[in-house]
Predict the structure.
Amino acid sequence: MIEFSTWDILRNLLLATRWTILLSLVSFVGGGAVGLLLLFLRISKRKAARAFAKYYIELFQGTPLLMQLFLAFFGLGLFGVDVPAWLAAGMALVLWTASFLAEIWRGCVESIARGQWEASASLGMGRLQQMRYVILPQALKIAVPPTVGFSVQVVKGTALTSIIGFVELSKAGTVVTNATFQPFTVYGLVALIYFALCWPLSKSSQILERKLNVAHRNH
C-alpha cells in the first residue's frame, strides 16, 4: 500500500477546495442576480408578479437542497438531456441561493420607513427610480451583515453537490479517504479547511452588524 503523508493529503484537498470556492462564488453572484429580480417581483404592485415570487421562494425554501440537486441532475435526463454535474450543481445552488437572498433583501427594503416611499413619490419618481435612488441605498446598509452571513450557508451547501458527482472539497475527502485509509486525518483536514473558509465570513458578518448598529444609534 502506498503511504501518503499529511502534506500529500492536504495538497489534494486544497486542489479540490478551488472548486468549492468557485462554485460558492458562482452560486452567490448568480443567486444575487436572480434574487434581486425576485425582490422587485416580490414588492411589485402587480399581483401576479408578487404571487410568482412568493411561490418560487416558498418552493425553494420549503424543499431540501439535496432534492433540488437530484432534480437538476437526473430530472432533465428523463427528457434525454445530458447535464454535467458542474452545471447541475451551479444551477441548483443559484436558484436555491436566490430564494433566500430575495427574502433577506425584502425584509431590509420593508424596514425602510414608509415616509421615504411617500416622499420620493411626491417628487414624481417612478417605482424603479424610488428603489434605485432612495430605498436601495438605505436598505443596503441593513442588508450587508445578513447577506455576508448567508454566504456561509452557501459554502456549506456546496458539500451536498458531491452526491451528484461534483468533485469539491467533501467529495475529494471521500476519494482521498478511500485511497489512504486515513479517515481521521482526511476529514479532520476537510473540517479545518471548511472552518478557514466560513469563519472569516461569519466573523465579518458579526463585525459589520455591530458597526452598522452603532452607526444607526449615533445617527
